[in-house]
């Protein structure tokens, strides 16, 4: 590599690259023409094999009617096959389209979905992680700090002393309440 970090220069000159590209294009055109000719020849051989030339001269009316019925039966069979093929092609095209969309979704920016809260006990989690190796049960609540009943009662007394919030809302509602807020400098605290 160059000391600057650029790509190394090509050893083939620009005119040589151009001439090689032209040769490749000519070769590709020749191959394409040959392929189309081969297809046409194969189609002609297939039609000669499947659809022989009709001999209509010297046939009676009954024989012509039988021939017409046979041709109609063959047409029905071919139409069924054509319909089946078209259905398969449309199904495959739909699958291809869906797969392309999936590839684009995976190739583009992918946002991770928000995780949901799942309530799982410690025992269930250990069973999921360790499988059959997990034998004992873990009681995480045993290690928690216990709260005394007296502390809870004191908290309830403090909250009842604050008063009923509905009284404050009713007193401050309407224009009189707003006027009181401005007069007292910010409302009741």
User: Approximately what portion of the residues adopt beta-strand conformation?
Assistant: under 5%
Estimated structural class? mainly alpha
- Spans of 5+ residues with little confidence (pLDDT < 50)? none
Characterize the largest beta sheet: strand count, sense, and whether it forms a barrel.
none
Number of helices: 6
Model description:
The chain has 189 residues and is mainly alpha-helical. 67% of the residues lie in helices and 0% in strands. It has six helices and no strands. The longest helix is centred in the middle third of the chain and has 47 residues, at 61-107. The two termini are 75 Å apart.
Detail the topology: elements first, then pairings.
Elements: H1 14-50, H2 61-107, H3 122-130, H4 149-162, H5 165-172, H6 174-184
Summary?
It is built from six helices and no strands.
Question: What are the defining features of this structure?
Answer:
189 residues; 67% helix; mainly alpha
